[in-house]
Amino acid sequence: MRRLVLVALALSLSMLSTVSNAAPGLDGQALYTKYCSVCHNRGMEYPGTARLADRWPDQASLLDREGLDAEYVRYIVRHGFNMMPPFRPSEISKEELEALSGYLASSSPDKKKTEEKVK
Question: Is the pLDDT of residue 114 over 70?
Answer without folding.
Answer: no
